[in-house]
Amino acid sequence: MHSVVNAITDPQTYGTVLAIYKYVPVFFLVALLVVDAPYGRFGASFGFEFGFSKNTAKVAWVTMEMASPLVLFGTIFLVRSSSPVELAWSSGQWLCVTLWAGHYFNRTVIHPLLCSSMSAMHIFTWLVGLVFNTINGYCNGYWLASHPFSVDQPRVQLGLLLWSLGCASNIYHDHLLFALRSYKGKKRQTGRRYMIPVGGLFTWLSAPNYISEVVEWVGFYLICGSQPALLFALSTMGNLLPRAYRTHQWYGRQFRTYHTYHRKALIPFVF
Hints:
Elements: H1 2-9, H2 11-21, H3 24-34, E1 51-52, H4 57-82, H5 91-114, E2 121-122, H6 123-145, H7 154-182, H8 184-190, H9 208-224, H10 227-254
Helix pairs in contact: 1-4, 2-6, 3-10, 4-5, 4-6, 5-7, 6-10, 7-9, 9-10
């Protein structure tokens, strides 16, 4: 156990994991421009013999997402405990861990409770998510544990504004999708499994929940200005922006009249 703790808190380990993390945004972007990640509306074309059914999809989601806060807080505790000197804990660090906890409380508790059902998830999707959340939590936790900073800076305040707007928008548009999913009466009338979401930024975009999460983590990067936070923001872009574009195309194929909504994929009125 002692050797494991030493390995986790070793700056060399952090440097190695961070070096690996640098390739993740490119991997996500390239991979998801070629193939759709096998979950949600894009999972039908993949076999789920190896994966989580609709009955166990929430378990997969929670265990995958829970890795990020558990690893982040565990890393912070171990790094600070192993330090030969007592490290001060700053207002900036408190802000970052609070935002992280708030986001993942929504992801691991509120989101599964409010979502009436979740699509089957391929085991590969779950593994990739678990590995990413572990790397991300470790790198951001290690950096936060040893980098105190003050919230009394313009970039921090701008970042907090962006994070708050992105988080609120993400939650709001997720709830619009939850309401749509649970509206079974219309599904029976139309015979369709899917419906066109309306309200909020759905007026202009096909996947505002994805774009909102990108804004959220760009804001987080502005708050702490760290390399791990930058990689998190870039990885979120690499993962969700291609998915938002694919979602836009998918709606166009599923609904003949979708073009009459005049929505864009990524940027309102532009693209």
